[in-house]
Amino acid sequence: MKNSFLVFLLITILSCSAFAAEIEEAPVVWLDSGPISGKMEDGVREYLGIPYAAAPIGKLRWKIPRDVGQWKDVRKCTEFGPSCPQINPYNNLPKISEDCLYINVWTSAKSRSEKLPVMVWIHGGAWNFGSSAIKEYDGLNLAKKSVVMVSFNYRLGPFGFWAHPRLAMESSRNISGNYGFLDQIMALWWVQWNIDAFGGDPQNVTIFGESAGSANVTLLMVSPLAKGLFHRVIAQSGGPMVGLSYLIPKANGDMQEAIKMGETLAARLKCDKDKDVVAAMRRKSTAQILEAADFKMGLFDKGLFFAPVFDGWAIPSDPVAAYSSGEQQDVPVVIGSNKDEGTAFISASDLSAKKYKLFMDGRFGKNSKQAMEIFPAKKNEETGKALNKAITVSAFAEPARFVADSMKGKRSKAYLYQFTRVPNTADAKKAGAYHGLDVVYVLGNLNSAEGYDEKDAELSRLMMDCWINFAKAGDPNGPGLPGWPSYDRRADQNLEFGDSVKINDHLFEKECDFVENLRKER
To answer: Going by C-beta distance under 8 Å and a sequence separation of 6 or more, which residues neighbour residue 353?
Structure first.
């Protein structure tokens, strides 16, 4: 009986210890807005769901982000904040609300004096969906490697990028749109004001992102409002909306087209005839606005699409010209693409010679005949490969080369890469080295249950080391890592992250030259 009691007592103690470890609180951190508490996980302090701006609801819907205000009591920050409104493609997101401007911090620093490099992740999702709470974006594993990892939400779709003449009248600059982009700038200011409290160095901030997140970081490079807020840039699969219109024709940054879509949205909600269109729109519910926006992402969808606009204030009127004339910030850049970017956007119904020609005519116009020679497909079974390559090159690989080459007149260096690894996962077996696959490698969030093996884990460790070296010193090279040369157009070299890691040159050269020449002719 005595032994049974001792066993029971031991089990109880161990259970309580495990529970206590699971909910161990992280030390209180004092922000400029007030004190917060977090939680400990595997030696890393996590502070999740910290408000970085006032809730953009009510009269603040479609306003530039405002200061979050002050609080006195310790605010518990142990769970992600709500995700921003979207047509939700992910079943595992927390609740969705317009009150969504929250930021997350992971840090292994024991004190604020450590001054660790800071890496700020900007999520993708075509500016219409996504969240910092997506499990693949968890910052724990990167933070273990002596950086402070940050992620955040920004307004999406019609809530983040609605443009309308009546809305512009509320602005002293007579412009509208880009609220989700301004959220990103606000989050970077928050980092400057607060990251030292987590042991981070506000003078060593790397912004990085994938897809729309990659486009965002490259747009931030030419935004006058973001000058000095970061010191390195990593762009994974996307340039400053250069070439993106080949994938999504309406993602061209044109203000007049954005206004037309904004007026269409107001008309669908029967607000267009109202004396005060904007007030009428602000009375509409979140669900009503999402339903009217009716966002779709297929190659042949013709619905509304809300994205950054080139307003001449937050974003230059012509980002391509800004890069070409060297107006981007003089900061080191890592930029690249995946081998099979296009497969994520192609459905089975797109795979016919008729649809292929329709796509090429719509994207390349008078140059479609030449484009079909560059990306050939004469039979139905060849169209998938041709579409994949056309999208990969025009929307991702060539824009990456353009940005890398644009740094030639700067003191800072650029490094170009291509990700080619095809793991033994169900998705990769179907789609190859698809759009977004690189993210779990960079953030160290491989799931062995999905089919990732030790070779993938090794590649992940190598990529994380390259990214972290770059964040620390602006150079991805280091002991035990492959020599990664900085970009020079004459050599046109890139580092391949694949079954082997090696230096290649002239990636998609003929195809990239074709797309580049089309851009120069415009």
So the answer is: 377, 378, 379, 380, 383
Nearest residue to 116 via CA among 184, 55, 9, 205:
205
> Which segments within 296-338 are labelled E, that is strand?
333-338
* Residue 349 is a catalytic residue: no
Rounded to the nearest integer, the mean pLDDT of the chain is 93
* pLDDT tier, 13 (very low <50, low <70, confident <90, very high otherwise): very low
Helix (H) or strand (E) holding 217, with range, is helix 212-220
Q: Considering 131, 151, 211, 460, which one is annotated as catalytic? A: 211
211 is catalytic: yes
Q: Among candidates 299, 295, 304, 420, which has minimal Cα distance to 348?
A: 299
Place of tokens 């296009």: 342
Q: What's this model's pTM, rounded to 2 decimal places?
A: 0.94
Run of H or E residues at 517: helix 509-521
Task: Quote the Cα angle for 279-54-275, to 5°.
Answer: 5
- Tell me which residue of 359, 389, 356 sits closest to 374, measured CA to CA: 389
Could you give phi then psi for residue 36, rounded to 5 degrees?
-135, 155
Task: Count CB neighbours of 475 within 10 A.
Answer: 16
Under 8 Å CB-to-CB from 140, ≥6 apart: which residues? Answer: 41, 42, 44, 46, 106, 149
Residue 206 φ then ψ, to 5°: -105, 125
How far, in Å, CA of 430 to CA of 129, rounded?
23
For residues 406 and 489, the answer to whether their CB atoms sit within 8 Å is no
Query: In the chain, what are the helix, strand and coil shares in percent, each to the nearest 5?
Result: 40, 15, 40
Amino acid at 441: Y
Contact yes or no for 134/213 (Cβ under 8 A): no
Q: Name the DSSP letter for residue 112.
A: G
- Report how far apart, in Å, the C-alpha atoms of 65 and of each of 77, 250, 433, 483, 519 are: 21, 25, 37, 43, 34
- DSSP code, position 67: -
Indicate if the pLDDT at residue 1 is higher than 60: no
- CA 99 from chain centre, in angstroms, equals 20
Model pLDDT for residues 166-219, shown as the tens digit of each residue = 999 999 999 999 999 999 999 999 999 999 999 999 999 999 999 999 999 999
Helix 255-268 and helix 286-293, axial crossing angle in degrees, nearest 10: 120
The kind and range of the H/E element at 277 are helix 277-283
Cα separation, 401 vs 414, whole angstroms: 10
Q: Closest Cα partner for 433 from 423, 444, 448?
A: 423
SS3 (DSSP) at 206: strand
Q: For tokens 């910092």, what's the residue? A: 132
- Class of residue 229 by CB neighbours under 10 A (exposed 0-12, middle 13-18, buried 19+): buried
Yes or no: say if 284 and 271 are a contact pair by the CB < 8 Å rule: yes
Q: 341, 398, 496, 511: which one is catalytic? A: 341
